[in-house]
Sequence to fold (393 residues):
Amino acid sequence: MPVPDWIWCTFIFAFGCCIGSFLNVVVYRLPRDKSLVTPPSACPACNKHIRFYDNIPLLSYILLQGKCRFCKARISPRYFFVELLTGSLFVGLFLIYYRTDIRPSMGMLTEGRWFVYLLHVILLGAFIAASGIDLEYWVIPLSICYLVTAAGIVASTLGVYVIDPALIHNDHLLPWATAGPAAIAIGATIGLAIAWLLIKTGIIKRSYEIDDQAAEQTRDNHDAAPNPKIAPPEPEFNHRIESCREIIFLLPVVACSIAAYWVAARTLSVETWTAFHTRHPAVSGLLGSLFGYFVGCAIVWSIRILGTFGFGKEAMGLGDVHLMGAAGAVIGPLPVVVAFFIAPFFGLAWAGCQMFFKKIRQIPYGPFLSLGILAVMILHDRIMDRIGLLFYR
Fold:
């Protein structure tokens, strides 16, 4: 007997709200370098531990009227909003995937397609937390991006044991590499390892790196200032020089990618690779996810470097680079490129309001990249039907 939809929706919404409650902890603690596990949740105003019955998603906020039970301090509505948003997105994605024809490739929960939904809600949850932090602190924690990247690579590798590899390939349920992208992914991974080795040995330097002596001098000057409570000034950089350092870091990645593609094109036939990824689909999933990661990073990093050279200041944050890389590892190379070009449409109205009312010209871009990724996840089949065949034939 099939489970009624209202039971599915109720369970998924409740589960999503619980995840949203945890995401609130991430948004509050991660930027402050606090543990996500200990100590238990407490009121920031009076430091009293929050009892379990005061920590029920949505309901506790309503019953307490948005105030602490002990000191009556106001609780930010962000907590209620994040819980409601997460639960709603989880339910909405379930209904779109399995109860509408917007993304027919998802079909039903059978044949292991639930595995894709699970991976996508992990991505959504992580990006909700990253967006909340970016809106408040103008930074995207790389640990969140690394978590999503790892989830994408592992799921794409092991997904062939849950879903028929033919379905994954034909319906583009998970990233999948053909000969050219596979060679590029292998070369880029080798190049990235070389670049990190050069960083670790000190042969090349990180961009926007402050040495210990300069950092200590900045702290001393700040402590000696008339009003040390004011935040210390940001270190000054020549942004174009810092972009040159990033280009040097990326050179091994680009060079090894080109070399690997050149070697593969001259030594491997299409028939050889087809036979290989038919016999070893997990490797195709792994390399497909890696290729998506590098494509997602590349498109944002190229805009970051070009924008920095053009405007003489840092154009986009490295957090945005890793955010799109993580998305590429989950949804694949072509969808992440489309998502990048959709994102500005979500940001235009918000940026206009900010410039008009607050007179600022910079915006945290992570939330709009996340919205672009969500749109592509929903419209995935239509995108692949129109332009996907150019990359997956």
Summary: The mean pLDDT is 87.
